[in-house]
Design a protein that fits this description.
By secondary structure, the chain is of the alpha+beta class. Among the domains are: about 230 residues, no CATH class; about 60 residues. Helices cover about 50% and strands about 15% of the residues. It has 19 helices and twelve strands. The strands form four sheets. Strands 4-5-6-7-8 form a five-stranded antiparallel beta sheet. Helix 4 crosses helix 6.
């Protein structure tokens, strides 16, 4: 067997392993993310340009609580973990036992971090769109994927490109340790698009069709296989092999590789060694389906209540006019009774509404919607209540946030690796690595709102310590206040609370200000001493004069003591 045959055989095996997950995703998508509810199709236009899947699926939904909850949950996840309005991670040394960074290293980490954020939020990189879609997929299905590729010739501002990859296109595999290191992505493009991307590397049939106006839009089945280099005996220095294939022609378009795994996989709460994870919707799918069924029945009951069927004599073929102001001659008998009566099958259709609302509330709690309603429902909370609520939100979403950070850390590694290969860290560059950092890996530390929420108990502990020290001082015991370090308290408060660092003075400026304050205090004490000494000398002089006026002449010993007193006072 050749290389292409081996790859397609491997793809078929991975696809078979992932088949249950794809079926599960399709089932969930119909109820929570209609845009992902793909249908099998052979239509060229729909297969290539896509189709409004939500417009097809949404009319079949009778309750949209889950759809709206996923939108809210995704927005909340982004705001808590990676808000675009703030810095949500720092850089540091990967080695936990490495010495604290010196000033030069701190400045390097800050420059590199700031560059990464400017690069990501450059609209040309596609990070905002890709990350939002991947987070939404993660919330709905438990797994979301971003593809990061190195950009050529786009300038320093766009060294990488971020693209969201729909989950159903991917067939993921994991190694012995559970790390996702394999992906057989199956997707389609037109013949003309393939030639636009790869040119002469395409098969002869694809190139011929691309030049034929009647066949240029022919659908081409493609596979992008990325897997560890160890599975193939190539001599590349890269850690991962990459192959683009045409399935029908069994043609290898291009062979390349990656130093890092280019597909960034974001999991919800991974509890197994498999490449996929389940999200909150998986646990609530039975509630979602039952809610759809009950809402449909409620809709039918409401229709019957508002526009009920009618009963009439079997020999009367006149259709009654039920419009406002309509007349129906012959619909009364001799006793004035209606010959047509509504058939009321629903005695109390509002009863179903109570059950549905209870189920909707349960579903909102399962999808964390109640966490985003706290400030709306209780706008007059005190600062302490708000802190407790924030801590509760951090505790509930903490495990999910930690799982997300695993994928984001892999993303940072991929970004830094690309920048290094582009020469961003070489001598003379604005991102030049300090000599003390040569060959040392760079790690990431997350500082988003959710990370600060998890540290709120530390802030509460600081407040309680200060409060207790104040109570001790009220009863004359200053030992508590003497043990508190104001500088460290402010450092922790700034770090946990997320206050801007530039509102604090630098350590050097604080040292200078304290030294100036100390000198001013010493000068003040000296001046006060001189003033007090002058007052004593004046008092002694007035005493001698008073003795002389009284006719008493001090002896030599007394004059000597008075002279010493004046000298000491001066």
């Amino acid at each position: 067997m050749g290389l292409v045959d081996n790859l397609l055989t491997r793809k078929a095996a991975v696809e078979a392993e992932c088949a249950p997950w794809r079926d599960h995703v399709r089932d969930l998508a119909k109820y929570v993310l209609p845009t992902m509810a793909q249908r099998e199709t052979t239509d060229i236009v729909r297969a290539i340009a896509g189709e409004p899947n939500s417009a097809y699926v949404s009319p079949q939904l009778y309750d949209h609580t889950a759809v709206m909850a996923i939108q809210r949950l995704a927005a909340g996840e982004i705001s808590l973990n990676m808000p675009s309005s703030s810095i949500w991670h720092d850089l540091k040394k990967s080695d936990p036992f490495a010495p604290d960074p010196n000033q030069e290293e701190k400045e390097f980490f800050e420059r590199l971090r700031n560059y990464l954020f400017k690069m990501r939020y450059n609209p040309k990189t596609g990070f905002v769109v890709a990350s939002k879609a991947a987070i939404k997929s993660r919330c709905a299905f438990g797994t979301g994927i971003i593809y990061i590729s190195e950009q050529m010739g786009q300038g320093a501002g766009v060294p990488v490109s971020y693209r969201y990859v729909p989950l159903l296109e991917n067939n993921l595999g994991a190694n012995f340790e559970g790390v996702v290191d394999t992906n057989f992505r199956a997707f389609t493009r037109t013949a003309s698009q393939c030639v636009e991307k790869w040119g002469d590397q395409c098969s002869a049939k694809v190139k011929t069709d691309a030049n034929d106006p009647d066949k240029s839009n022919r659908v081409v089945q493609l596979v992008h296989a990325v897997l560890p280099r160890r599975e193939f005996s190539d001599e590349s220095e890269m850690d991962y092999s990459s192959f683009y294939l045409e399935v029908e022609e069994r043609h290898l378009i291009r062979e390349n590789g990656y130093f890092e795994f280019p597909y960034i996989v974001l999991h919800w709460d991974r509890e197994t060694q498999g490449p996929y994870s389940e999200g909150p919707v998986s646990m609530a799918i039975s509630e979602i389906k039952s809610l759809q069924l009950m809402s449909k029945e409620e809709y039918t009951a409401a229709q019957q209540w508002i526009n009920p069927p009618t009963a009439q004599k079997d020999d009367d073929h006149n259709r009654p006019d039920l419009s406002p102001g309509g007349t129906n001659p012959g619909m009364l008998n001799e006793r004035g009774e209606l010959l047509v009566k509504p058939i009321m099958l629903q005695a109390n259709p509002g009863f179903a509404r109570d059950i549905i609302q209870a189920k909707q509330q349960n579903l909102k709690e399962a999808l964390y919607v109640n966490l985003w309603q706290i400030l709306i429902a209780s706008p007059n909370m005190t600062a302490t209540e708000a802190m407790i609520r924030a801590q509760e939100k951090g505790d509930l979403l903490g495990p999910s946030g930690l799982s997300l950070q695993v994928g984001l850390a892999n993303m940072v590694d991929r970004e830094i690796g690309i920048l290094g290969r582009k020469g961003a860290f070489e001598s003379g560059s604005r991102l030049e690595v300090p000599g003390s950092m040569n060959n040392q890996p760079i790690g990431v530390g997350f500082t988003g709102p959710l990370d600060r929420m998890r540290r709120i108990p530390q802030l509460q502990g600081i407040e309680r310590a200060i409060e207790m020290a104040g109570r001790l001082a009220e009863v004359g015991n200053n030992s508590g206040i003497e043990r508190l370090d104001g500088d460290r308290i402010m450092e922790h408060t700034q770090d946990i609370g997320g206050a801007p660092a530039d509102i604090f003075k630098s350590e050097l400026q604080v040292t200078i200000d304290r030294e100036e304050r100390r000198q001013m205090d010493e000068q003040q004490e000296t001046l006060q001493g001189i003033e007090q000494g002058g007052a004593v000398a004046q008092a002694v002089g007035r005493g001698v004069m008073a003795l002389q006026d009284a006719g008493a002449v001090p002896d030599a010993e007394m004059m000597h003591k008075l002279s010493d007193t004046q000298d000491n006072a001066g």
